[in-house]
Specification:
Radius of gyration of chain B: 30 Å
Oligomer: heterodimer
Largest sheet of chain A: 9 strands, mixed
Shape of chain A: globular
Strand content of chain B: 5-15%
Order of helices and strands of chain A: HEEEHEEHHEHHHEEEHEEEHHHHE
Helix content of chain A: 25-40%
Shape of chain B: elongated
Helix content of chain B: 40-55%
Structural class of chain A: alpha/beta
Strand order of the largest sheet of chain B: 1-2-4-5-3
Strand content of chain A: 25-35%
Number of domains of chain A: 2
Number of strands of chain B: 12
Number of domains of chain B: 4
Number of helices of chain A: 12
Distance between the termini of chain A: 100 Å
Chain lengths: 392, 545
């Protein structure tokens, strides 16, 4: 027993020694830390860098004693920004006026200004990955304009602009543009990313707030943003980059509109023929359901339904063709055609890797679309319509 | 009685000093005190002599100023022989003594002066034995037997007509069940052995009696099932108890503390129970139970950590719920030990480990708290322990008031005043509830104790400290043994065969063997006929036609 007591004593002694190593103690209370929730990165006109932070104010949040609760009005965050010759300098300047230590471990959204995105994203990855606190699952989006303005938005449903951005991306895009995936896509030849774009939208109703609006997607070539796309085109581009997300599509049948919910969509890209000009085959198959049929197009008769399907198929095909043509014009390989060539024939790929953008632009894409309408609804007619002759 | 300081007490020879003693009362008393210190052992060795008066005088000397010892002198009818009845008032049943002893001796049915003949022919009592020396006589007398001394016999007769007051059999308060027997052990060891005997009606059930404690002379019963238990284990238990030399044993806790393997450990290495059914169950597993007179708590050895996670009801209810609840208990055991430490570590070191919104709510709640998390946790845990202690010690009627006050003060008011944060109250409550789910109270105590060092380690080193602490605890658990059985088995030394009754409780028929290799010869519990039949058809289905 004496031995065990000796062991215990020496253990205690060893542990107590650590109390003298105060310098190594990294204890920091949760209330000595300022949590940056969103960061915005911009490039100024004179070539400097601007960093903007949304910092959470837990004291202003509901739940804290004497805190917000029902008071409303005050935001649970504040936005600060500074300019420096690099990002670190800007951060240091801001830290100088903060009573709490900046912490980036809960930064889940990084917003890049349009200017920076146009000039190339690569330097950004140096900035964010050198901070060990940073999450590799943080999302990167592009601001339509200045990032510092976007992150100052006051969305109604979420507490921070970042959270709103995140939620919108999760619901509206097939794949989250995470730091780790983007870094991979940017560094890899033969595939280019599509990054969501956001802008501020003043609320037209009450109260007057600045809501976060998903305005489109950015097409990236290499690490530079080359095109902003908006509207329905975004869905097609996402589909091409294998990030299908369920969406609604309008088609015209005999001059009458029918709305189709595109539920599932798959994409398969294969190299069809090698040669001077590459030929790819893009097989797209999709299923949808009729969501709205105000005009009362007859969907009950199988032959007519097949006709509607055909219209949809053709429309989809022409849309995808247009989207493909666009990426080819821009030289941005969002479909990953280069990677597919690499997988199919590494030698061919190596021969073309150097000027891949040019090869890609000249490639031919054969698009096969298979579209199926699975659900036309329980009722093919409007329930309020007078019963037709044939049912009497 | 205390020794008078500095004075070297001379050993007194009984025979020589007897006459001097009677001379002066004061002197006699002083001498007597010395006597009780020094020579009582010698006195006890003395055989009874043929002269009744001499025996009586010695006894009266021994029981000087013991008002509860009754001497009843009489002459046996039909002879001229003098006799004396000696009994402890309150320990014997007076009516029975009157009816079976005094009446038969005074009414002259068997006018005999020979004790052997009296025992054979006259006295109508079941339990009788003759006593040959003083020590034996005194022991039997103080255990509640009535002693009959007859002149000219050189021995006495001890008649068991006990009738002491004791608590009746009632529901065990520390181990209540929804389903299962409602009887619990009492303070009377005879009642307890009878309850156990009623559960195990087999001559294999042995009840080896021992006496421990110089002054208390406490009766022990070591019970085991011969042929199921490992004989070496019984030998070891007996040996350890024989090694005990102490003035008093007031509860089985004394025995537990004196015979356990590691006295420095916080983990209990001997289990205790108030339930006869639990005792019977462990005997059937090949363990040994030690009953101690004067307490309803029976010691069970050897014990493993995992067996302390079991409750008797696991086996009485359906096996599915038994398994689920066992899993819950093991989980909550860890929760009870680690939660405050983990909370402190995450709040002060590893903020990135929390989901963002949870982190922000905790930060919001902690915004106005003046203390660091560890101080806050220590305040709350100590307040909680204080409340619990107050609740146990106070009379039941006041106890309720304490719990109301405590809930108000510790829970609501402290949060509203901004002294502690609401998440900390939640953590402390979860911990408290978790430690209550451990079915054995003495294991819950170790959880409570270990919580504090883990909290300190967490505050100083973060998760790293918790891991170090947990590793130390695990290492200790693996090293610990209870009567030769590794405390952490069947996990410590891996034994898969026992896992069907460790983390889960598989159906009874599938637990074919006794656990932990407590016995290697008689291992089978469920007969092949039964287990095979159920295993084949998934139940005792009727014959198909």
């Amino acid at each position: 027993m004496k031995r065990s007591r000796k062991t215990l004593l020496s253990l205690l002694l060893v542990c107590s020694l650590s109390f003298f190593l105060t310098g190594c103690w990294d204890r920091r209370e949760i209330n000595d830390v300022a949590f940056a929730m969103v960061t915005g990165f911009d490039k100024t006109k004179d070539g400097k860098y601007k960093e903007s932070l949304v910092i959470a104010l837990p004291g202003k949040m509901a739940g804290g004693p004497g805190g917000g609760g029902g008071s409303g009005g005050e935001n649970p965050f504040y936005v600060d920004s500074d300019v420096g010759i690099n990002i670190r300098e800007a951060t240091q300047k801001m830290q100088g006026r903060m009573s709490r230590i900046l912490n980036f471990s809960h930064r889940r959204v990084i917003v890049v200004g349009e200017e920076w995105a146009k000039s190339g994203l690569t330097p950004l990855f140096d900035v964010v990955t050198r901070v060990p606190q940073n999450r590799v699952t943080a999302m990167i989006v592009i601001a339509d304009g200045e990032a510092s303005k976007l992150i100052a938005g006051t969305p109604h449903m979420e507490r921070f602009s970042g959270e709103a951005i995140r939620e919108i991306v999760v619901t509206g895009f097939g794949e989250q543009p995470m730091l780790k995936d983007l870094a991979q896509k940017i560094s890899l030849d033969g595939i280019d990313p599509v990054i969501p774009i956001f802008r501020l939208q003043p609320n037209k109703g009450e109260p007057k707030t600045e809501e976060i609006q998903a305005s489109g997607a950015a097409i990236i070539r290499g690490d530079k943003m080359v095109e902003k796309v908006e509207g329905e085109e975004v869905n097609d581009l996402l589909w091409l980059s294998d990030q299908f997300k369920s969406h609604a599509s309008q088609i015209m049948v005999e001059g009458k509109p029918v709305s189709i919910t595109v539920r599932t969509g798959s994409r398969r890209l294969t190299v069809e023929r090698l040669g001077e000009r590459l030929v790819y085959r893009l097989k797209v198959s999709t299923e949808g359901g009729v969501f709205e049929n105000i005009a009362g197009v007859d969907l009950f008769t199988p032959t007519k339904l097949a006709a509607v399907e055909e219209i949809w198929r053709k429309q989809l095909k022409s849309k995808l063709e247009k989207a493909v043509a666009k990426t080819q014009n821009l030289g941005s390989d969002i479909m990953g055609a280069g990677l597919i060539l690499n997988l199919a024939n590494p030698d061919e790929w190596r021969a073309r890797q150097k000027d891949w953008a040019e090869h890609f632009s000249r490639a031919e894409f054969i698009i096969d679309v298979e579209a199926k309408i699975r659900r036309v609804g329980q009722i093919s007619d409007n329930v309020a319509e007078p019963l037709k002759e044939k049912w009497r | 009685m205390t020794k008078r300081d500095g004075k070297d007490i001379k050993k007194l020879r009984w025979n020589k000093s007897l006459k001097d003693m009677v001379k002066n009362k004061q002197q006699r008393r002083n001498r007597y005190e010395e006597l009780s210190q020094v020579d009582i052992q010698e006195l006890m060795q003395k055989p009874l002599c043929h002269d009744l008066d001499e025996n009586k005088r010695i006894l009266q000397m021994l029981f000087e100023e013991c008002s509860d010892i009754v001497f009843r002198d009489f002459t046996i009818e039909g002879t001229k022989t003098k006799a004396t009845l000696i009994a402890v008032d309150g320990l014997v049943n007076t009516q029975l003594v009157d009816g079976h002893l005094l009446r038969s001796l005074l009414n002259g049915e068997g006018g005999e002066s020979n004790l052997d003949l009296l025992q054979e022919r006259t006295i109508t009592a079941t339990q009788m034995s003759s006593v040959e020396n003083m020590g034996e006589l005194v022991r039997q007398l103080l255990n509640g037997d009535t002693i009959l001394l007859v002149d000219g016999n050189g021995k006495g007769l001890s008649v068991g007509l006990r009738g002491a007051e004791h608590r009746g059999v009632s529901e065990p308060e520390t181990e209540t069940v929804v389903r299962g027997p409602r009887e619990g052990f009492t303070e009377n060891i005879r009642t307890n052995t009878s309850m156990l005997r009623r559960k195990l009606k087999t001559p294999r059930l042995k009840m080896k009696a021992m006496v421990v404690g110089r002054e208390t002379q406490t009766n022990l019963v070591i019970s085991y099932l011969e042929g199921i238990v490992d004989p070496n284990l019984v030998q070891e238990v007996v040996k350890r108890i024989e090694n005990i030399d102490i003035d008093g044993i007031l509860e089985s806790g004394y025995i537990e503390e004196l015979i356990q393997d590691d006295t420095w450990s916080v983990f209990p290495q001997i289990m205790h129970t108030e339930r006869p059914d639990t005792t019977a169950a462990v005997l059937l597993e090949g363990r040994v139970a030690v009953m101690v007179d004067g307490t309803p708590f029976v010691l069970i050895m050897p014990t493993t950590l995992w067996s302390m996670m079991q409750a008797s009801e696991d086996y009485y209810e359906r096996w599915q719920i038994g398994s689920l609840i066992r899993g819950l208990r093991i989980m909550l055991f860890l929760v009870g030990m680690l939660t405050p430490g983990l909370y402190i570590a995450i709040i002060t070191f590893h903020q990135e480990m929390l989901p963002t919104s949870l982190l922000l709510s905790i930060a919001a709640a902690r915004e106005t708290i003046p203390f660091p998390a560890v101080v806050e946790a220590l305040i709350m845990e100590t307040a909680f322990e204080a409340l619990r202690e107050a609740g146990i010690r106070l009379p039941r009627t006041i106890g309720q008031a304490v719990s109301i006050l405590g809930a108000l003060v510790v829970g609501q008011a402290a949060v509203e005043a901004g002294i502690v944060s609401a998440p900390m109250v939640i953590v402390v409550s979860i911990t408290g509830i978790a430690s209550f789910t451990v079915p054995r109270f003495n294991l819950a105590i170790s959880v409570r104790i270990l919580r504090y060092p883990l909290m300190i380690l967490a505050a100083v080193f973060g998760i790293f400290g918790i891991i170090i602490g947990t590793m130390l605890i695990l290492g200790h658990l693996c090293k610990l043994r209870s009567f030769g059985l590794p405390y952490f088995s069947p996990v410590g030394p891996m034994r898969y065969a026992d896992w069907n009754d460790t983390f889960v409780r598989m159906p009874l028929w599938s637990n074919e063997e006794r656990p932990l290799q407590l016995n290697k010869e008689n291992e089978r519990r469920v007969g092949e006929r039964t287990s095979q039949k159920i295993a084949d058809k998934g139940g005792m289905k009727g014959e198909e036609k």
